[in-house]
Specification:
two-stranded antiparallel ribbon, butanol dehydrogenase (NAD+) activity, oxidoreductase, 5-stranded parallel β-sheet, 11 helices, metal ion binding, Dehydroquinate synthase-like, alpha domain, about 290 residues, ADH_Fe/GldA
C-alpha cells in the first residue's frame, strides 16, 4: 500500500537486511511501487540479527544527511527494530545506546515510521519497543518509548510464504514465548486476559507443526501472522493479568553475549525455563495444560 507512504513523506529510507528480501523479489517490488507512487527510496540494507546500535547510528546519520522524511522497516524483527532505532536516533546526534535506561526526550523532529513484517515472530510492528545490541561490550538491551511506535503497520501474510522452515519454527517459538511467559508469571490472573493468551497459544501449538509440513499454506500463515501481532501488542495484557517475560530477559543476555539469533536462544532456553518455574507456578501450568 504505497499510498500510505506518500501521505507521510516523499523521500523514504527503506531499512532491511542484506539479501533475503532481494532474493524473494520483495525489495524490488516495494521500491518499484513506492517510485510509481511518487516516493523516492534510499535502501539501507545493513540489518543483521541482534540489531546493532552501530547500525542504527549509521542509519540515523544518513537519514539526517539525506533529508529523509519517512522510515520504512521491511523484514523480521531485526529490520523493524533497526528502523525504530534509526527514527529515535535521527532526532538528535547522540548514539542510540545513550537512550537506554533514561527518561527519553527527543530534541528534533520525529520521522514517521511504517513497519512491514515479513515473518510471524517478534510482533515488533505492534509496539514501541526495540532490542539493541552493542557488540563492543556484548550487551543487549530493550528500549521502549512511544516515539518508536509506527504510524502504519502493514501485515501481509503472503510475505511470510518464502520464510524457510527453520526460521518459521523459531518464529513460532518467539510467538509462543511472548504469550506464555506473562501467562505463567502473572500474580493477578484475569479471565479475559487468560482467554486472549490461550487463543494465541492454541493457534501456535495447533498450526505451527502443520505449517512446517506445508510452508505455502496461506491460511495457516495468516493465523500465525495475527497471533504474532497480538502476542506482542498491548492486547496481550488486556485485563491486566500479564506478568514479566523472564525467559526473554535471559535470552537477551545470552543473545547479546554470544550473538545467537533471538529465536534460537528462546528455543534452547524455554524447556529449562519451564522446568525451573514449574515448582513455584504450578497452578498456572495446570491452567495452561
Amino acid at each position: 500500500r504505497p499510498e500510505f507512504a506518500l501521505e507521510l513523506g516523499q523521500k523514504a529510507m527503506l531499512v532491511t537486511g542484506h539479501s533475503s528480501m532481494r532474493r524473494a523479489g520483495v525489495l524490488d517490488r516495494v521500491v518499484g511501487d513506492l517510485k510509481n507512487n511518487g516516493v523516492d527510496t534510499l535502501v539501507f540494507d545493513k540489518v543483521v540479527p541482534n540489531p546493532r546500535a552501530s547500525t542504527m547510528d549509521e542509519g540515523a546519520r544518513m537519514a539526517r544527511q539525506e533529508g529523509i522524511e519517512l522510515v520504512i522497516g521491511l523484514g523480521g524483527g531485526s529490520a523493524m527494530d533497526t528502523a525504530k532505532g534509526i527514527v529515535l536516533a535521527s532526532t538528535g546526534t547522540k548514539p542510540i545506546w545513550d537512550y537506554i535506561g533514561t527518561d527519553i526526550k527527543v530534541s528534533g523532529p520525529l520521522l514517521p515510521l511504517i513497519l512491514v513484517p515479513t515473518m510471524a515472530a517478534t510482533g515488533s510492528e505492534a509496539n514501541g519497543g526495540a532490542s539493541i545490541t552493542k557488540r563492543e561490550t556484548r550487551e543487549k538491551a530493550y528500549i521502549f518509548t512511544p516515539y518508536m511506535f509506527p504510524k502504519v503497520s502493514i501485515i501481509d501474510p503472503e510475505l511470510t510464504l518464502t520464510v524457510p522452515k527453520k526460521q518459521t519454527a523459531t518464529g513460532g517459538v518467539d510467538i509462543f514465548c511472548h504469550a506464555v511467559e506473562g501467562y505463567i508469571t502473572t500474580q493477578e490472573p484475569s479471565m479475559v486476559n487468560d482467554g486472549i493468551i490461550e487463543a494465541v497459544l492454541r493457534t501456535v501449538v495447533e498450526l505451527l507443526p502443520k505449517v512446517l509440513d506445508k510452508l505455502d499454506d496461506i491460511g495457516m500463515r495468516t493465523e500465525l501472522s495475527w497471533a504474532s501481532t497480538i502476542a506482542c501488542s498491548q492486547l496481550i495484557a488486556l485485563g491486566g493479568g500479564y506478568g514479566p517475560r523472564t525467559c526473554h530477559s535471559i535470552s537477551n543476555f545470552l543473545g547479546g553475549y554470544y550473538d545467537v539469533a533471538h529465536g534460537d536462544c528462546l528455543a534452547a532456553i524455554l524447556p529449562v525455563w519451564m522446568r525451573y518455574t514449574l515448582p513455584v507456578r504450578a497452578e498456572r501450568f495446570h491452567a495452561l495444560g
